[in-house]
Amino acid sequence: MTEFRSLQARPFYDPWGAWDLFRGFDRLFQEFDRNEGLRSFGYAPSAHIEDAGDRFVLRVDVPGVNEKDIHVDMHDGVLTVSAHRVLTAPEKYDARRRERTDSSFARSYALGDKVDPEKATAEIKDGVLTVSIAKAPGVQKRTISVKTV
User: Fold this and answer.
1) How many CA atoms lie within 13 A of 55 on its CB side?
2) Rounded CA gap, 149 and 136, in Å?
3) Across the strands, what pairs with 105?
4) CB 60: neighbour CB atoms within 10 A?
5) DSSP structure string for 73-112
6) Which residues does 131 contact at the CB level (< 8 Å), separation at least 6?
7) What are the domain boundaries of the chain?
8) What is the dihedral of CA 10, 11, 16, 20, to 10 degrees?
9) Which of 15, 33, 54, 111 is most buried, most CB within 10 Å of its CB?
10) Are 67 and 86 within 8 A, CB to CB?
11) Architecture in CATH for domain 45-92+101-140
12) What is the pLDDT of residue 36?
């Protein structure tokens, strides 16, 4: 009579197993880079920068922020938008659940010497801050044709 023994999986060393840890950290930082991480720590508004030919246009969602609480600065080619949102409650206000809080943010965008800070405007309408900065002379967009050789 033949005896069969079951083969048991033996623990073994996997030299590539450490890469799973690195992949996990990589995913974490990718999420943080997409501002998802920033939002989990506080207020980080969405932003959009557009090249409008003769100027750059930055649009930032700032719902609930008053005009006087928004600061736009340009220094050494870096545009910085910062704001502080204050939520005021009516007298004798008793919240059952409070998810909205006072918060602030600051975001910076490197534009270099491509812009003329003297020709910048900022306005807020319907909770969207629009900053328009004229490009410096000689920095206009140019299309270069590609030829097959």
Assistant:
1) 14
2) 35
3) 83
4) 24
5) EEETTEEEEEEEE---PPTT---S------EEEEEEEE-G
6) 57, 58, 59, 60, 72, 79, 81, 120, 121, 122
7) 15-42, 45-92+101-140
8) 120
9) 111
10) no
11) Sandwich (2.60)
12) 46
Write out the two tokens for 102. 């006072």
Q: Locate tokens 């506080």: which residue?
A: 42
**CB-facing half-sphere around the CA of 59: CA atoms within 13 A:** 8
- DSSP character for 6? P
Nearest residue to 59 via CA among 42, 79, 84: 79
Task: Say how many C-beta atoms besides its own lie within 10 A of residue 62's C-beta.
Answer: 22
- CA dist 108 to 7, 71, 112, Å? 60, 12, 12
Cα separation, 144 vs 149, whole angstroms: 15
Q: Give the model's pLDDT for residue 66.
A: 86
The tens digit of pLDDT for each residue in 87-127 reads 777 788 777 777 777 788 888 888 877 888 888 999 999 99
